[in-house]
Amino acid sequence: MSEMKNIVVYCSSREDISQSYKDCARLLGEWIGKQGHKLVYGGVHAGLMSITAQAVHDNGGKVLGVVPEMFMYRSSHLNDELIATENLNDRKAVMIETGDVYVVLPGGIGTLDEWVATLSHNVVSGSSKKLLIVNLDGVFDYQWKQIAETASSPFANGDVMKLMVEAKSADEMIAQLEQLQNKI
Question: HEC string of the chain?
């Protein structure tokens, strides 16, 4: 087992989503916990965030919740550590700075915001930290294509795509994490 790494997970806080997304979040949490890593996430008791945190906790990993003050009342009892931030932008900044690798599970606008903000930060800072985009059921097909189009345009550097890895299934997600683990 390698030394503990901080795995940042961006994902949905919704409850009313497909079981396949929930199963993927659980599998991710199990992997993080069994590998002895630390989950860094939005820190609230809701949706895929809660499922991932529970699985990390149940499998021996540590859980760091990063919660804006306005959502502290929703913070999870599963957090081994808790960082309160002033707002969502501060939460993103803490999560980006804390991470060794980033996993983007299916989610909505907030998840997309976190994905793009992390990618942008890593490009600007010269970081080689990877983002694993879990594109179950093609949920991120359009976003992936848009980033690829932008990366190949005169407005961006094509190297942007080298910072991201795509997984189209839960099994592929684990295989990609195994590969990334050897590089972080």
Answer: CCCCCEEEEECCCCCCCCHHHHHHHHHHHHHHHHCCCEEEECCECCHHHHHHHHHHHHCCCEEEEEEEHHHHHHECCCCCEEEEECCHHHHHHHHHHHCCEEEECCCCHHHHHHHHHHHHHHHHHCCCCCEEEECHHHCCHHHHHHHHHHHCCCCCCHHHHHHEEEECCHHHHHHHHHHHHCCC
What's the pLDDT at 181? 82
Crossing angle of helices 47-58 and 19-34, in 10° steps, is 30
Residue 59 identity (one-letter amino acid): N
Residue 174 confidence (pLDDT) above 90 = yes
Look at the block and give the residue holding tokens 């939460």.
91
CA 91 to chain CA centroid, Å, is 13
Distance separating alpha carbons of residues 26 and 73, to the nearest angstrom? 24
Tell me the per-residue pLDDT of 121-167, one tens digit each, with 9 for 90 and over: 999 999 999 999 999 999 999 999 999 999 999 998 768 899 999 99
Closest among 65, 127, 69, 71 to 95, alpha carbons compared: 65
